[in-house]
UniProtKB/TrEMBL annotation:
It comes from Peribacillus asahii. It comes from the Bacteria. InterPro entries: Aminotrans_3, Aminotrans_3_PPA_site, PyrdxlP-dep_Trfase, PyrdxlP-dep_Trfase_major, PyrdxlP-dep_Trfase_small. GO terms for molecular function: pyridoxal phosphate binding; transaminase activity. Keywords: Aminotransferase, Pyridoxal phosphate, Transferase. PANTHER family: AMINOTRANSFERASE (PTHR43094), AMINOTRANSFERASE CLASS-III (PTHR43094:SF1). Pfam families: Aminotran_3. Belongs to the class-III pyridoxal-phosphate-dependent aminotransferase family. This is Aspartate aminotransferase family protein.
Length: 441
């Protein structure tokens, strides 16, 4: 594409003047304008308005699992939009893509997670789980069970319930006031959960929520045995177990869902992102057969919870095709194999760079901790990962950073990535670290 400097400049100015970016620094935006204005994507690559091509090392927001530029998905959306772009699912009205997707999800989800409530994204899914968990306990005659417990490094989204459950404190502090009855426990041991339950009183607790791998918290893989212990504790105290699979679902960790690694079946499982690989806005909550049976038996009035876009026919048809592609191209297996390559690359960087501390990956979600001194584990006073990410972007690789309580580079490339492309990512990181270390030491 020919570089059109005039259009480029005009868009930069309009962006600064009219567009408030999500999760962004307004000051930085006003000072510099957008760093990239993307116009095209293919596979793991994105191309911006100036013609610069970069590797999308984050699958954009951990979501473009099948990679960019899939004509099949565009075609399915076009066909569905031409036939029936939208119709409501409130009350007794239904549509075929929503029914087929619900049934497909039930068939791939673990255990008896067989009934789905659709939303438009992850935050709405978590809010749905919290509201319906509380509603469930009212129906069961235990209305005192309202408390929701989550883990300290967790991220569950930005709706009020999702923010309140989010363990990362800056997100809660940002809103000034959060919803009552949300509690956070240390996420490194299941004993912290047991203690909190005992302290608060099990009869006051509705549910516990956890990610199998914390994403925005810095790619923290659940400790060995953690999820199994949590399942036991929830059963012991009659507390609902909610798993947030918004990032980990649909192949990301090398299994279809994160919980498949642990053989655990939650009572509710929230999903979004990879269900449609970002080609349409979609999320939802899968409910266990047991919970759904109780709801069927006990619900008398209207379920007063529903989004306009719950069961959106176009979004659901896109998701169905997306899941078909994940299965047809064995992308879950590819994520597992390429995840091993990614970790090998991280270990190479660890042995060659003094600033690389702990490295971790499960399938194609990974993190590299940045330290000042890897022998002592001492950190830089000002996190270095933002500088590394900026330098990597200049060299053609987009990644993200986590700087709350840590200094970590995070990765989640599309599940279609191959070995040569992983090696290219590692080469770029290697060059970036050499350059930054040269400046530092
Ligand atoms: N849960 C987790 C684990 C997430 O990572 C995210 C988004 N990154 C959300 C929930 C919120 O999803 P959304 O941004 O689609 O509302």
């Amino acid at each position: 594409m020919l570089k059109d400097v005039k259009v480029d400049k005009e868009l930069m100015e309009l962006d600064k003047k009219h567009f408030i970016h999500p999760t962004s620094s307004i000051a930085q935006q006003q000072a510099n304008g957008p760093s990239f204005i993307f116009t095209e994507g293919k596979g793991i690559y994105l191309t911006d308005i100036t013609g610069k091509q970069v590797i999308d090392g984050m699958s954009s927001l951990w979501n473009v699992n099948i990679g960019h530029g899939r004509e099949e998905l565009a075609q399915v959306a076009q066909e569905q939009m031409s036939k029936l772009a939208f119709s409501s699912c409130f009350g007794t009205i239904s549509n075929e893509p929503a029914i087929r997707l619900a049934s497909k999800l039930a068939s791939i989800a673990p255990g008896d997670l067989n009934a789905v409530f659709f939303t438009s994204g992850g935050s709405e899914s978590n809010d749905t789980a919290f509201k319906l968990a509380r509603h469930y306990w009212v129906l069961k005659g235990q209305p005192n069970r309202q408390k929701i417990i989550s883990r300290t490094q967790s991220y569950h989204g930005v709706a009020m319930g999702a923010t309140s459950a989010t363990g990362l404190k800056p997100f809660r502090d940002f809103t000034n006031s959060i919803i009552p009855d949300f509690y956070h426990v240390d996420g490194t041991s299941s004993e912290a959960l047991r203690e909190a339950i005992e302290q608060e009183g099990p009869e006051t607790i509705a549910a516990f929520i956890t990610e199998p791998v914390q994403g925005a918290g810095g790619v923290n893989i659940a400790p060995e045995g953690y999820l199994q212990e949590v399942r036991k504790i929830c059963d012991e105290y009659g507390i609902l177990m909610i798993v947030d699979e918004v990032i980990t679902g649909f192949g990301r960790t090398g299994t279809m869902f994160g919980v498949n690694h642990y053989g655990v079946v939650p009572d509710m499982m929230c999903f979004a992102k990879g269900v449609s690989s970002g080609y349409a806005q979609l999320g939802g909550v899968l409910f266990s057969e047991k919970i759904f049976d109780d709801l069927k038996e006990l619900s008398k009035g209207t379920l007063l919870h529903g989004y306009t876009y719950s069961g959106h026919p176009t979004a659901c048809s896109v998701a169905l095709k997306n899941i078909e592609i994940i299965e047809r191209e064995n992308l879950v297996e590819n994520a597992k194999l390429m995840g091993e390559e990614l970790l090998k690359g991280f270990k190479y960087l660890q042995s060659n760079h003094r600033i690389v501390g702990d490295v971790r990956a499960l399938g194609l979600i990974g993190g590299i901790e940045i330290v000042k001194d890897k022998l002592t584990g001492e950190s830089f006073e000002t996190p270095l990962s933002p500088k590394l990410a900026e330098e990597a972007a200049k060299r053609g690789l987009i990644i993200r950073t986590v700087t709350f309580d840590q200094d970590t580079l995070v990765f989640a490339p599309p599940l279609v990535i191959n070995k040569a492309e992983i090696e290219r990512m590692i080469d770029i990181l290697d060059e970036t670290m050499i350059a930054v270390e040269r400046e530092l030491f």
